[in-house]
Amino acid sequence: NAGVTQTPKFRVLKTGQSMTLLCAQDMNHEYMYWYRQDPGMGLRLIHYSVGEGTTAKGEVPDGYNVSRLKKQNFLLGLESAAPSQTSVYFCASSPSGDSYNEQFFGPGTRLTVL
Amino acid sequence: GQNIDQPTEMTATEGAIVQINCTYQTSGFNGLFWYQQHAGEAPTFLSYNVLDGLEEKGRFSSFLSRSKGYSYLLLKELQMKDSASYLCAVTDSNYQLIWGAGTKLIIKP
Fold first, then answer.
1. Chain A residues lying within 8 Å of B87, measured CB to CB
2. Closest partner CB to A97 (pick from B4, B8, B95)
């Protein structure tokens, strides 16, 4: 099992460009999440999904869109990148929303917006 | 607002014991997690506490006091590979995970 994978691992964008980050999991998990991690701050939830075809906003959703067309995939889109979106992006998944379920993280995507 | 506090950085010696504290103020409580994150890598699960008391798992133990809004992670027999950031996270009343900024642990020989 690969677990949670993310592509790409690194990306540099210019302000105003768009891109899509892909997350895939092979554990048949229902829940999937997108976080960003910035120095000195905790992980912040951007969007999440409780199942195929569903999405919901997290703490910092502005400037991002997501889609979950297939259960195993969760895509994060940046429509018009801004320097404030320079960050490390982590995707995670969990079997369900039960409070005891740990989240399994992908390796991260390091995004720089110039 | 919701808040989780952890020390920013701690230093300890190989072979010693270190305790990393976490205090939280959240809207509701449905459990507390500790994750380990090596530099440049993804967080990985260490422990989960929902009831008061100590949970032991090998060299790592985690303690919770719900009445005090307090938890700690205890690492024994420290090894160089334990150098990492340790993240505290609380599940609130909406079953959302609220994350602390993490404690960077530096192990010296």
1. 42-43
2. B95
Pairwise CB contact (< 8 Å): A42 & B41: no
Task: Quickly count: other Cβ atoms within 10 Å of residue A103's Cβ.
Answer: 24
Give the whole-angstrom CA distance, residue B33 versus residue A102.
8
Check: CB of residue B10 under 8 Å from CB of residue B103: yes
Please list the alpha-helical segments (H only) found in A11-52.
none
What was the pLDDT predicted at B94? Answer: 85
Which of B4, B43, B95 has the CB atom closest to A99's CB atom?
A: B95
pLDDT digits (tens, 9 = 90+) for B17-62: 999 999 999 989 999 999 999 999 999 999 999 999 999 999 999 9
SS3 B19: strand
Q: Please confirm whether the linkage preceding A107 is cis (ω < 30° from 0).
A: no
C-alpha distance from B105 to closest chain A C-alpha (Å): 14
Q: Under a CB-based contact definition with an 8 Å cutoff, are residues B65 and B52 in contact? A: yes
